[in-house]
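Morning F.,

Quick status update on the modeling queue. The single chain you submitted on Monday has been processed. Sequence for confirmation:
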Amino acid sequence: MHVGSSLTKILPGSAESCRTGRRAASGSPVPRASVHKASGDEVLLSAVDRVGDDRFRVTPLWRRDHYLGHLGGGVCDPVLLAETVRQAAIHVSHRFYGVPYGHPFVMHELTVDLGAPLPGLSAELPPVAVEAQVRRREGREVDMCMQSVVEMAGRRLGRARVRWAVLDPDRYARLRNRTSTAVGAETVHGDAVPLVPSRVGHRLDRDVLLAAAPAHPGQWWLRLDPGHPVLFDHPSDHIPGMALVEAFRQMSTVLAHGTPAAHGSVPRHPSLLSVAFTSFGELDAPVLLTAQPADGEDDTPGTVLLRALQDGRELAHARVRHPALGDTGRDGKEATC
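Structure tokens below.
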């Protein structure tokens, strides 16, 4: 096995481009295929340059009106950073590590852990810098991990981490071995009631991924729209990982709104969103979303454990920390790749 490493520096676009909703003026988007996107509007990276041996600089293209930006003025939603880091991992794999196009990527973990909020998209603030180290291990499959430190003007804001595997197409086909790839008609129970968009930080009904079941308070059913322009940017034979990440983010927003702290001046976004993906989610069966207090040794007060279950099988779980749920504001422990 060979283990390699690299450093990546990520710098957001200008504040002016974020205010107006336009893309960053400097550089141009990386190729859509290099981040596995069908629409150029969903590419969040630009001007990926090598600045030294195994070191790169990546400039994100963040727009204020992007779906993952949500409705939280004043600070940037960590899910937008999570998707940016995910795209950076894919792009770096292809361009700098020689991973062939057409090889499926399987995400194992995606984490954003902030000790301070990300700057707002319209704020006149210094750019955020993300220093990331990528490690690669080759065997039956290529395992990769990117550990990042998020900083602004020399002040540490937090960290991000993504782990993924690259599979041979034939092995992936044998692993999946599915014939149904369409979202079925019975993927949400009949008594489920979609939440109001504003409760989850959106404006449109189609962006709401949660439907409450009156018979099961505190639990939700996952709503999937196969025509969603962001979450289903391209065909998939399984539930997209970012759909689960966004569903967990929406759950944390709903839980935070139900606390007394939510009526004060508390940030609306989670400070920790750490998702582990454990199995593929099928598109033709319901997914139940549950929440409970997290009681792990490293969990701080206010951390909740969110799970996505399909036919009793876990698809993913997330540890989420939110200021309104008793956040300590402490940057979490780092995990090594």
